[in-house]
Amino acid sequence: MRQKGDADDPELVLPYYGFLSALAVDPIEKKPLYHWRPGSSIVSAGFAGCNLHCPFCQNWRISQISEKKSGGTFFKPEELIAEAKAAAGSSLDRQIAYTYSEPLVHVEYLCDCMEEAFTEGIASVLVTNGCINAQAAEKILSRTDAANIDLKCFSQKTYSAVLGGDLPAVLDFIRLAVGLGVHTEITTLVVPDLNDSEKELMEIAEFIAGLGGTTPWHLSAYHPDWKWNAPPTNPAALSAIAEKAQTLLPHVYTGNIAGMHNNTICGHCGAVLVTRRGYRLDTKGLRLPDEQKRNTTGTAFYRCAACGAASPIRRR
After folding, report:
1. Given CB 3.0 to 4.6 Å as the disulfide criterion, which of 3, 69, 169, 282 pairs with 275?
2. Is residue 267 pLDDT above 80, yes or no?
3. H helices present in 120-253, as ranges
């Protein structure tokens, strides 16, 4: 912040309020969100800067440099809302993702955008590391419809010494999101020699299982980047931990490893609800509930086309 005004009446100004490093339309699966509006598109607003300093950052070109060097432009909240309307057209899937780097660094802008989006019937999606204090977390999550939250490891020592973050704050953020009814999915980037032990990963699985419900867990493969030169995540090892985690969790995905654990299965009859090949989807296993055909507002979940049971996948 910089100070503006005279000494008796200073005004605090956010010099990068509304500064976006990127603006694009993405498939929702890229966030990644697998149980929220599958096959839909979303306007993605990216930001520069981050409150963590992960040495293996896969997106360091915008997260670890200053806004002045990153390029970009300023968008007022109403201008971003207009982008979401234009991108969706007449579609019901009007939605904005705050993503790419760490949006919580710009929490004041997010609150204003989310409030405006709410009044316009536009869903707000947050892609975040969850490192924020409780008071701010509650304010931002109260207007968040869906979130993918990074749970980078299950070691406070690693969070503090390597990443510059705080594990308890992230766990509290996840619990709060779930408690407030935010559609929540969790991602862990599996980095060799950092967080890839079976013990630590299963501790994460146990934590997610303790949240109740059917919270999806995305296990992502790392590749060497920025300051980290460990070899890439072994796909076979990632698959093995996914299979072990499935003894505790109904939905574990390895989305950036082609041809592995990416389909969503009905927990009642075992039918395939959604088949995924990269960002290409087959959703023939889903059907809308009858009430969704009559009423397009409020929360609604798809049903299994084979047995009619409620699925974990949200339409709205």
Report:
1. 282
2. yes
3. 134-141, 156-158, 167-179, 198-210, 235-245
